[in-house]
């Protein structure tokens, strides 16, 4: 095994900045940025939030437009769908495409657009945080365009949806109802819950992802058959959270940590435009208490997801359990414990490349297959932000150096094998390029401060 210390050589800043900018320009469609031209030819929700964070260093106005385009597809109930489909892309270019989701018809009662085709599920709520950072990049341009006053009501509605219809457990946390929603698609954490799901017939769908990426790197056909079944059940119940018989309902720590961080950002936005920030601060405080009370494990020193169907905590050790480091006001003792876990044998900070998505010591770990072990750049960016905010400057600096070196060396790969550092998935991936630009612009001492 080649260690990170033996291979790292920090990329020249100018070359890295130029290359990352070229990726974003190449994936720009005129109104938004696709994750990649090949595998992901539409606009993805949390991708666009991360992309806007990096675009603000290239063009704050374009970063604003990235978020505005996404928010224009918001449903009447407040949800931001996880995909906004580009009508110029053939339906068969990506599965499941607009013909599967049928948002305008199946989502009509939930307020889906009659004109913009979307999916019906959601992704992690990074959007208010992204909007605040985009505003901060050029406040004068933001004020001139009225950016914050225009996005604030939509972001507030998004958070109300998550805190209302999606509090399926009644404990003050948002729930996810499909493995794609927390963004950790085929994590071993979901194996037991997915085993309950009757797969869709294998002949009823045709995967397109395997045209662009190795089958060894992607979720299995059985995973996909279960994803399809869950999505179809939700669709066939009108995307109604109360009416759908959810066989998969999870309180995920990273999803809720990002909601809390964004609630703090929404409070900052409210103050800036003269709205009442108090409700946002109170909701963030209450959600932090719920996150710690319901998902923190002081013995394992990590946050565990909770399966609402069984009521039990999910035992697996996932990168999701470290991402609550981004929560402002997280108790210092918990932040210290998370840093210990990050450096320990399960995640090996400094001994492997970035932060693996799953426990290195677990039998389920697979360093090549999507979220079952590979290291991802977006989760590394979030953990870097959290470490810096909680005073873990040395660890944050190490992770920042790794990120920049590996992003450049891998041609902005989607993800990496954590032991070798080899690129996996798609190259020239937009959020990898965008977040590299952000770390280039932001010193470790600042830690991407709010």
Can you walk through the features of this model?
With 450 residues, the protein is mainly alpha-helical. The chain has a single domain, classed as Alpha/alpha barrel (Glycosyltransferase). The chain is built from 17 helices and nine strands. Strands 7-8-9 form a three-stranded antiparallel beta sheet. The chain has a two-stranded antiparallel sheet with strand order 1-2. A hairpin with a 6-residue loop joins strand 8 and strand 9 (423-424). The chain starts with a helix and ends in a 9-residue tail after the last helix. The relative contact order is 0.13. Residues 1-10 and 443-450 have low confidence and may be disordered. GO terms for molecular function: Glc3Man9GlcNAc2 oligosaccharide glucosidase activity. Keywords: Glycosidase, Hydrolase. It holds the Pfam family MGH1-like_GH. This is Mannosylglycerate hydrolase MGH1-like glycoside hydrolase domain-containing protein. Belongs to the glycosyl hydrolase 63 family.
């Amino acid at each position: 095994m080649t260690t990170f210390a033996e291979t790292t050589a920090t990329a020249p800043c100018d070359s890295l900045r130029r290359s990352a900018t070229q990726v974003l320009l190449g994936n720009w469609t005129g109104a938004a940025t696709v994750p990649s031209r090949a595998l992901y030819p539409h606009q993805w929700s949390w991708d666009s939030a991360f992309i806007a964070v990096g675009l603000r260093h290239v063009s704050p106005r374009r970063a604003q437009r990235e978020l505005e385009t996404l928010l224009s597809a918001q449903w009447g109930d407040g949800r931001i769908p996880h995909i906004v489909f580009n009508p110029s892309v053939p339906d068969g270019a990506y599965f499941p495409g607009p013909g599967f989701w049928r948002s305008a018809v199946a989502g009509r009662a939930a307020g889906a657009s009659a004109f913009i085709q979307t999916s019906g599920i959601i992704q992690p709520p990074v959007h208010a945080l992204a909007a605040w950072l985009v505003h901060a990049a050029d406040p004068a341009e933001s004020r001139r365009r009225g950016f914050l006053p225009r996005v604030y009501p939509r972001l507030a509605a998004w958070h109300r949806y998550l805190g209302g219809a999606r509090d399926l457990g009644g404990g003050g946390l948002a729930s996810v109802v499909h493995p794609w929603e927390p963004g950790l698609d085929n994590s071993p954490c979901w194996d037991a819950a997915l085993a309950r799901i009757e797969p869709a017939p294998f002949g009823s769908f045709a995967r397109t992802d395997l045209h662009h990426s190795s089958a060894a790197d992607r979720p299995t056909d059985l995973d996909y058959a279960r994803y399809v079944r869950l999505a179809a059940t939700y669709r066939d119940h009108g995307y109604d959270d109360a009416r759908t018989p959810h066989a998969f309902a999870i309180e995920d720590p990273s999803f809720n940590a990002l909601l809390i961080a964004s609630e703090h950002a929404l409070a900052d936005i409210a103050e800036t435009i003269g709205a009442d920030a108090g409700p946002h601060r109170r909701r963030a405080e209450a959600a932090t208490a719920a996150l710690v009370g319901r998902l923190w494990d002081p013995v394992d020193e990590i946050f565990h997801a909770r399966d609402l169907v069984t009521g039990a905590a999910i035992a697996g050790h996932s990168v999701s359990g470290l991402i609550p480091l981004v929560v402002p006001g997280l108790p210092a003792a918990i932040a210290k414990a998370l840093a210990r876990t990050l450096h320990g044998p399960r995640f090996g900070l400094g001994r492997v490349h970035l932060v693996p998505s799953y426990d290195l010591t677990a039998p389920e770990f697979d360093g090549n297959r999507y979220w079952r072990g590979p290291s991802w750049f977006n989760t590394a960016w979030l953990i870097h932000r959290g470490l810096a905010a909680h005073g873990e400057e040395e660890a944050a600096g190490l992770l920042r150096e790794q990120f920049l070196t590996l992003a450049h060396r891998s041609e902005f790969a989607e993800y990496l094998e954590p032991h070798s550092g080899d690129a996996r998935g798609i190259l020239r991936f937009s959020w990898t390029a965008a977040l590299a630009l952000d770390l280039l612009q932001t010193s470790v001492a600042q830690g991407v401060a709010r």
